[in-house]
Specification:
Strand content of chain B: 5-15%
Helix content of chain B: 25-40%
Shape of chain B: elongated
CATH class of chain A: Alpha Beta
Strand content of chain A: 25-35%
Number of strands of chain A: 9
Number of helices of chain B: 6
Oligomer: heterodimer
Strand order of the largest sheet of chain A: 1-2-5-4-3
Distance between the termini of chain B: 54 Å
Helix content of chain A: 10-25%
Bound molecules: iron/sulfur cluster
Radius of gyration of chain A: 17 Å
Number of helices of chain A: 3
Number of strands of chain B: 6
Largest interface: A-B, 12 and 12 residues
Order of helices and strands of chain A: HEEHEEEEHEEE
Number of domains of chain A: 1
CATH topology of chain A: Beta Polymerase, domain 2
Structural class of chain A: alpha/beta
Chain lengths: ~160, ~170
């Protein structure tokens, strides 16, 4: 069982010192900020390494940082074998919201990534079936973006009052 | 031997206006379309179950819009569902009635302001006869809605074609 700090140290030995950073909010567990290009290799390592064995993706969520003009993806991982947890975050600019898909590593990510695409518009690279999951296919925009403006009509039906 | 020799012995002829006979038949066999959209549907199911017992008013569920007289819109109508509701309504044969059950289908309910995905009232796509307020309405309220609808049917005529745009909605 490892703490997030120990996990970061362990990862640094493998991936080099200056790639990953540990960040901390006012409350809750710290998280590891990961460059988007690294996320797939890192995930594979986290899942397969004998000292980490993160075999479960508990949750994958999308975020919109309005001020920073960035989109974020948060990965909550758990190892059922070694019983430890870690949180990863990826941030990408709104103009180029491309993040490599981890669907090939944890199958859970399939629908979760589709939801993140549907709601905030993160584009998951190499996802096998990246289409909307909740909203209809011909919907315009991503509703959980903080600057979202709703379309006035959907198929001729008013969406407002 | 046959039916004829008995036919006029018992006084079994009833004379009644055609209109009231039709209305009487209609209002006592309100078959509704069996579908629910959200939490309100749970209360609708409770109304149909043994404690409140819809059946005693002749209100029974049908699985096809072709056989249904009344549509209970029980729950949140999403934008995705709105066009389907419209189609289901069009498939029902006339005379057809709509009961809008709960705040969601009356006006958008808890989603009235920030619910980008919710239709703000089912009356934007189909005409509604009775609005039942509540979130969710209790089974008694839904029953009251049906009683209101029965009242409404009692006053119907067949001489003037029922104009759906002129129908005055009721609130239970
Ligand atoms: S009116 Fe209330 S109970 Fe009924 S569907 Fe809407 S939220 Fe659920």
């Amino acid at each position: 069982m490892k703490k997030p700090e120990e996990i970061l140290e362990y990862l640094n030995q493998k991936f080099g010192e200056d790639q990953l950073t540990l960040e901390r909010g006012d409350i809750g567990e710290p998280w590891i900020l990961v460059p988007a290009s690294m996320i797939r290799d890192l995930s594979k390592f986290l899942r397969d390494d004998s000292e980490l064995r993160f075999d479960m993706l508990m949750c994958l969520s999308g975020l919109h940082y309005l001020k920073e003009e960035e989109l974020g993806v948060v990965y909550h991982l758990h190892s059922t074998k070694l019983d430890h947890y870690v949180t990863l975050k990826v941030r990408v600019p709104v103009e180029e919201p491309e993040v490599p898909s981890v669907e090939s590593i944890w199958k859970t990510a399939d629908w979760h990534e589709r939801e993140a695409w549907d709601m905030v518009g993160v584009v998951f690279d190499k996802h096998p079936n990246l289409k909307r999951i909740l909203l209809p296919d011909d919907w315009i925009g991503h509703p959980l973006r903080k600057d979202y403006v709703q379309q006035e009509f959907y198929q001729g039906i008013p969406t407002g009052e | 031997m046959g039916m004829l020799d008995k036919k006029y012995h018992d006084s079994n002829i009833i004379i009644v206006g055609l209109e009231s006979a039709l209305n009487w038949a209609r209002k006592n066999s309100l078959w509704y379309e069996q579908f629910g959209l959200a939490c309100c549907a749970i209360e609708m199911m409770a109304t149909a179950a043994s404690r409140y017992d819809f059946d005693r008013f002749g209100i029974i569920p049908r699985s096809s819009p072709r056989q249904a007289d009344v549509m209970i819109v029980a729950g949140t109508v999403t934008m995705k569902m709105a066009s389907r509701i419209e189609r289901l309504y069009e498939q029902m044969s006339e005379p057809r009635y709509v009961i809008s059950m709960g705040s969601c289908s009356n006006c958008g309910g808890p989603y009235w302001e920030h619910g980008y995905h919710v239709l703000k009232g089912v009356d934007k796509v189909i005409p509604v006869d009775v609005y039942v307020p509540g979130c969710p309405p209790r089974p008694e309220a839904l029953l009251e809605g049906f009683l209101k609808l029965q009242e409404k049917i009692t006053g119907e005529t067949i001489i003037f074609k029922k104009n759906e745009a002129d129908k005055k909605p009721e609130t239970a």
